[in-house]
UniProtKB/TrEMBL annotation:
Principal cellular location given in the protein's record: cytoplasm
Catalytic activity: N(6)-[(R)-dihydrolipoyl]-L-lysyl-[protein] + NAD(+) = N(6)-[(R)-lipoyl]-L-lysyl-[protein] + NADH + H(+)
Residues that coordinate or bind NAD(+): 188-195, 211, 278
Name of the coding gene: lpdG
Keywords: Cytoplasm, Disulfide bond, FAD, Flavoprotein, NAD, Nucleotide-binding, Oxidoreductase, Redox-active center
Family, similarity comment: Belongs to the class-I pyridine nucleotide-disulfide oxidoreductase family.
One of the GO BP terms on file: 2-oxoglutarate metabolic process
Domain FAD/NAD(P)-binding intervals: 5-334
Enzyme Commission (EC) number: 1.8.1.4
Protein name listed in UniProt: Dihydrolipoyl dehydrogenase
Cofactor note as given: Binds 1 FAD per subunit.
Length: 478
């Protein structure tokens, strides 16, 4: 007799485990299946995000930035330290401990909510049956009223640079270097490439980022992208745009990469190469041929706005479906689906999903960019405020970047908030809260912001939309 559940979730990443917890909270008998094993050979919950993504990369980003500050800018504050050294294995061990604490925390949360966890590979069969292939090779079939597919994504491999996790690594391997490479190459100037490049650059690596596209961060607002390119280049990241990788050759402990630019064929030699050209959905052996669930040619599962697949009672969320591959998007889809299964009419606002790049300064945005709005023919007013004019940023010795608020010229409704600078992710979230309630720039301008804070930069940018900024000169209306 197969075990019966109201909900079976395949995958325990930020989409799957959140969906499972919410479903259990709503009184549904829930199971969650996970096959990923951590460094200790035990099943680790939390998916890419907790194990080899968002969390470990932030741990390294914070450690490396503290080292950089101690080395480069403590003297500004009158702190003299002598020779500062970084113990890389200790930094990496701290990162591993944080991961262990959090994955253990997810396990405790699932248990506390009464979710049954199965360790192994989940596969959807016909009739909402789910086959679990356990780690010892034995199988068990679960019967489900509803199934949520949350199998996540993995790094894209590219033929010119096959990953060996020794010299050529993916984003996972780049979190485990035990020494700082003298020369580091990064393929891809996206979120992952810039974050990991920043970590090792701060610790002393000479970093070259090779990006095939001609535009830097094309998804971000152009004004922010240009500022980010300038600031990151000044920090020592050498970013080559319009550079197409054609080949790589490992010789001993180093790798020579060949790429073409407008100037023709070029070669560079590195001690390590990180391949960070994006991620693709993990759908290998996820669906039996008669499961009835449709996928596109790239392996994404077709879903509607409520994450329902072509089979009634089967849903898919997170990186295996359309939209941004972001942990917070996956989590909210998980909540929406669990609530819809329980009979609620939950919806998700896909227009207001914040994006963040955790370089320093951070780069973050929510809503639409100036170039997208102009392309749509929307008349807009724009307000900006530089952190160089912020008292709090000056006190923190953190004045690079700006806040940009875009509002509809006719209604004054805020359509986009874009930030590069200290606490950018938090300021953008404030913008997202306002936008969720349909805020106007005037509304933000009329609110009382505490002084001195980084948040005042958002206040001033909102005021600047209508020429009312106090702490910078306003642009004259033409």
């Amino acid at each position: 007799m197969s075990q019966k559940f109201d909900v079976v979730v395949i995958g325990a990443g930020p989409g799957g485990y959140v969906a499972a917890i919410r479903a259990a909270q709503l009184g549904l008998k829930t199971a969650c299946i996970e096959k990923y094993q951590g460094k200790d050979g035990k099943t680790a919950l939390g998916g890419t995000c907790l194990n080899v993504g968002c969390i470990p990369s932030k741990a390294l980003l914070d450690s490396s930035y503290k080292f950089h500050e101690a080395q480069e800018s403590f003297n500004v504050h009158g702190i003299s330290t002598g020779d500062v050294k970084m113990d890389v294995p200790t930094m990496v061990a701290r990162k591993d401990q944080i991961v262990k604490n959090l994955t253990g925390g997810v396990s405790a949360l699932l248990k506390a909510n009464g979710v049954t966890v199965f360790e192994g590979h989940g596969k959807l069969l016909a009739g909402k049956q789910v086959e679990v292939t356990k780690l010892d090779g034995s199988t068990e079939t679960l019967a489900a009223e509803n199934v949520i597919l949350a199998s996540g994504s993995k790094p894209v491999d590219i033929p010119p640079a096959p990953v060996d996790q020794k010299v050529i690594v993916d984003s996972t391997g780049a979190l485990d270097f035990q020494t700082v490479p003298a020369r580091l190459g990064v393929i891809g100037a996206g979120v992952i490439g810039l974050e990991l490049g920043s970590v090792w650059s701060r610790l002393g690596a000479e970093v070259t980022v090779i990006e095939a596209m001609d535009k830097f961060l094309p998804a971000a607002d152009e004004q922010i992208s240009k500022e980010a390119f300038k600031v990151l280049s000044k920090q020592g990241l050498k970013i080559l745009l319009g550079a197409r990788l054609t080949a790589s050759e490992i010789k001993g402990e180093e790798v020579t990469v060949s790429f073409t630019t407008a100037e023709g064929e070029q070669q560079l030699t590195f001690d390590k190469l990180i391949v960070a050209v994006g991620r693709r959905p993990v759908t290998t052996d996820l669906l039996a041929s008669d499961s009835g669930v449709d996928m596109d040619e790239r392996g994404f599962i077709f879903v509607n706005d409520q994450c329902a697949t072509s089979v009634p009672g089967v849903y898919a969320i997170g990186d295996v479906v359309r939209g941004a591959m972001l942990a917070h998007k996956a989590s909210e889809e998980g909540v929406m689906v669990a609530e819809r299964i329980a009979g609620h009419k939950s919806q998700m606002n896909y227009d207001l999903i914040p994006s963040v790049i955790y370089t320093h300064p951070e780069i973050a945005w929510v809503g639409k960019t100036e170039q997208a709005l102009k392309a749509e023919g929307v008349e807009i007013n724009v307000g900006t405020f530089p952190f160089a004019a912020s008292g709090r940023a000056m006190a923190a010795n953190d004045t690079a970047g700006l806040v940009k608020v875009i509002a509809d010229a006719k209604t004054d409704r805020v359509l986009g908030v874009h930030v590069m600078g200290p606490a950018a992710a938090e300021l953008v979230q404030q913008g997202a809260i306002g936008m969720e309630f349909g805020t106007s720039a005037e509304d933000l301008g009329m609110m009382v912001f505490s002084h001195p804070t980084m948040s005042e930069a958002l206040h001033e940018a909102a005021l600047a939309v209508n020429g009312h900024a106090i702490h910078i000169a306003n642009r004259k209306k033409r």
